[in-house]
Amino acid sequence: MSLTRLPSPEVVADALLVGNTGTVLEAVHDYMDGGGAAFLVDALARPVMQAVGDRWCNGAITVAEEHAASELLRELLTQSLPGLGWHQGGPRAVIACAPGERHLLGARLVAQVLALDGWHVRFLGADTPAKDLAVFVAREQPAFVGLSVAMPERLDDARLTLELLHRTTPNIPLVAGGRVAASLLPEEQGAWSVLNSSEELLDLTRATSGGHFLFP
Length: 216
What we know:
Layout: H1 9-17, H2 21-57, H3 63-78, E1 92-97, H4 105-116, E2 120-123, H5 130-140, E3 144-148, H6 155-168, E4 174-177, E5 193-194, H7 198-206, E6 208-209, E7 212-213
Helix pairs in contact: 1-2, 2-3, 2-4, 5-6
């Protein structure tokens, strides 16, 4: 299928909200075939989640409908992406959601894209306390840490978490992503990176110099 003929995220969001599994699964397969895992996440999953979230914020759908759509999308995407144990021997990454952040689908999809690209990913899920994350990172010593934040009310906690990680493990690169991550630009240049897509993250993780990953 030509990329120009792929079903729009709005159409897929409509299908999700009425439980039309066949339409959604066909779209997932088309996007995966059209551009791979990162393209599937960036061009379909993220805008679909945005469309569903916007409808909830506008009062067009209920919390129950938003949850049902998110769970269906998660289940269908999981069928097209590998599990997190895909590459146990690869370089290690830690991916977590900011404290209080319950929206974990985007972070999990990024973790699965990384796993497909050869990373050994430790995914900590939703609502990860900052101090616990810092202790985990100090013990694991990953090649980098990714922190996801989707809701504006979690931005302050996300920033405090990034600052704590930068202070306690300054040698480990940090990456922030998610729906509202653009508001997390660091005051100290180079303290962490803010990325807008899975493709940007793969560009960083695939760039190496002397065996070290190149982060800004």
